[in-house]
Amino acid sequence: MPLSKEQKKEIQEQQAQENKTKRVTSPELEKILYEAIPVLDHGFVRVVDYMGDDSSIVQSARVSYGKGTKKVSTDSGLIKYLMRHRHSTPFEMCEIKYHVKLPIFIARQWIRHRTANVNEYSARYSILDKEFYMPTKDHLAAQSTINRQGRGDLIDGKQADEILNILKKDAEQTYDNYELMLNERFDGTTINKNNKGLARELARMNLTLNTYTQWYWKTDLLNLLNFLSLRADSHAQYEIRAYADVMTNSLKKWVPITFDAFMDYRVGGMELSAKGKSVIEKMIKGENCNFESSNLSKREWNELMDSFGFKEKIL
Amino acid sequence: MPLSKEQKKEIQEQQAQENKTKRVTSPELEKILYEAIPVLDHGFVRVVDYMGDDSSIVQSARVSYGKGTKKVSTDSGLIKYLMRHRHSTPFEMCEIKYHVKLPIFIARQWIRHRTANVNEYSARYSILDKEFYMPTKDHLAAQSTINRQGRGDLIDGKQADEILNILKKDAEQTYDNYELMLNERFDGTTINKNNKGLARELARMNLTLNTYTQWYWKTDLLNLLNFLSLRADSHAQYEIRAYADVMTNSLKKWVPITFDAFMDYRVGGMELSAKGKSVIEKMIKGENCNFESSNLSKREWNELMDSFGFKEKIL
Amino acid sequence: MPLSKEQKKEIQEQQAQENKTKRVTSPELEKILYEAIPVLDHGFVRVVDYMGDDSSIVQSARVSYGKGTKKVSTDSGLIKYLMRHRHSTPFEMCEIKYHVKLPIFIARQWIRHRTANVNEYSARYSILDKEFYMPTKDHLAAQSTINRQGRGDLIDGKQADEILNILKKDAEQTYDNYELMLNERFDGTTINKNNKGLARELARMNLTLNTYTQWYWKTDLLNLLNFLSLRADSHAQYEIRAYADVMTNSLKKWVPITFDAFMDYRVGGMELSAKGKSVIEKMIKGENCNFESSNLSKREWNELMDSFGFKEKIL
Amino acid sequence: MPLSKEQKKEIQEQQAQENKTKRVTSPELEKILYEAIPVLDHGFVRVVDYMGDDSSIVQSARVSYGKGTKKVSTDSGLIKYLMRHRHSTPFEMCEIKYHVKLPIFIARQWIRHRTANVNEYSARYSILDKEFYMPTKDHLAAQSTINRQGRGDLIDGKQADEILNILKKDAEQTYDNYELMLNERFDGTTINKNNKGLARELARMNLTLNTYTQWYWKTDLLNLLNFLSLRADSHAQYEIRAYADVMTNSLKKWVPITFDAFMDYRVGGMELSAKGKSVIEKMIKGENCNFESSNLSKREWNELMDSFGFKEKIL
Question: Annotated catalytic, B231?
Answer without folding.
Answer: yes
